[in-house]
Design brief:
It is built from five helices and two strands. The protein has about 160 residues and is mainly alpha-helical.
Length: about 160
């Protein structure tokens, strides 16, 4: 299993780092890796949102006993279930490799930041879709801009920060 992990990690790094020379003058390697991994995970999240909302949920609310969840919120939660573990893996083993925090503590910190992102996603989607009446997919795209900025700053300075010298 460890060999598979090392193979996947090195494959991802080699693909990402192949494109880094193009961006070398405008951003450090870690920022580029974050943008590449985050861009992939965000694209996956938005794709899952679109497919879930339009084809799995068919734009219908989800009823769980007496609780009714709007289709845009349910689609967002479906995407989260897939992208949370992928995002943690990419952050820990590709972007922020030099961290000194134990994996279990880091996972708890990562979840805390992601929980903040969940709340931001929920709030923005409720405002954009339910209050302003915007279409769900463009609302998700706009929401993502705010959430990615919050996530990067939080992950870099809280979850995966380097040990203080």
């Amino acid at each position: 299993m460890r060999n598979l992990h090392e193979y996947i990690r090195s494959l991802i790094l080699s693909v990402i780092d192949l494109f880094y020379p193009i961006f070398k003058k405008i951003m450090p390697l870690q920022t580029f890796r974050y943008a590449a991994c985050g861009g992939f995970n965000t694209s996956l999240d938005i794709s899952l949102f679109f497919v879930s909302y339009n084809f799995i949920l068919k734009r219908q609310p989800v009823h769980i006993y007496t609780l009714t969840i709007g289709p845009h919120i349910a689609a967002f939660l479906i995407g989260f279930l897939v992208t949370f573990p992928i995002g943690f893996y990419l952050s820990r083993y590709v972007v922020f490799q030099e961290t000194s925090v134990k994996k279990t503590k880091q996972l708890a910190k990562y979840f805390t930041v992601v929980f903040g992102c969940l709340l931001l996603n929920y709030a923005f989607l409720k405002i954009f879709v339910d209050v302003l009446g915007w279409y769900p997919t463009p609302s998700k795209l706009l929401t993502t801009i705010f959430v990615v900025a919050f996530s990067y700053v939080s992950q870099k300075n809280f979850t995966f920060r380097k040990a203080l010298d």
